[in-house]
Amino acid sequence: MADFTPVLKAVVPAAGLGTRFLPATKATPKEMLPIVDKPAIQYVVEEAVSAGLTDVLMVTGRSKRSIEDHFDRAYELEEALHAKGDEERLEAVRESSELAIMHYVRQGEPKGLGHAVHCARQHVGRDPFAVLLGDDMIDARDPLLTRMIEVRNQYGGSVIALMEVEPDQVSSYGCAAIAPTEEDDVVNVTDLIEKPAPEDAPSRWIIIGRYVCDPAIFDVLDKTPPGRGGEIQLTDALRTLAGMEASDGGQVHGVLFRGRRYDTGNKLEYLRTVVQFASERPDLAPEFMPWLREFVAAHDDA
Questions:
Q1: CA of 85: how far to CAs of 75, 82, 93, 97, 279, in Å?
Q2: Domain definitions of the chain by residue range
Q3: Domain 9-265 - what CATH class?
Q4: How far apart are CA 279 and CA 15, in angstroms?
Q5: What is the band of 27 on the pLDDT scale with cuts at 50, 70, 90?
Q6: Which of 16-20, 31-35, 40-44 has the lowest mean pLDDT?
């Protein structure tokens, strides 16, 4: 196994405006919308921590203060719960503030995901780091990020998570041209295209919101012009890295993910995620599932 600097830091871009969820996100960050009783962003931080990344930088924007508050101590609330003897809720409230060492930086202008990642440069320094997008949730039973870090430790360079979709879905994502390796779940990434037309897509493998980036990406982002949508695209910077020599921090590998992923970036997928999580909760499922069956049956009859 090659000797590479270990991955210890995570970057979570959370500066988006959440326009798909207006008016709910007028004053509440979309990352704070609950999946049952826990905000979506907490699941993402828990994923980073479970992969050994306890140094987490949140890239935020205006009106995102509640994210910082969520991962901070809430002494008055804790005292009130303690006085009532409600230890279960007290533990749940404290859990988020004890997950990781949290840091925050603001993305002053909405210039795209590439720009958001570049905002992490001072904190990350010359170390490799993971990027986790808050819209994508990976099931805790599928240790995707852990596998990606293993691949980085083995090959160096950068690593992206890839998932196969139907041809009519590729135009909503970054899409990868890939070549096989000796490992079934690892590929060489030879090219990347941001949101291609279906006929221009090099494959059906799209980038989902997990990356392990070599620090060389910062120098590339410095020179990456605005791309699709007039924004600085992380996909474009990774495409450049894929064509660079490994000795310069180039080379991109992909991990083919065939597990459970939840997309909370639009209303329909968000609702599906809430229902799936509620259906698997032992404290909710015994009552929720019979009601759901009756509701669906009545709806079908109607």
A1: 15, 5, 14, 20, 29
A2: 9-265, 266-302
A3: alpha beta
A4: 30
A5: confident
A6: 16-20
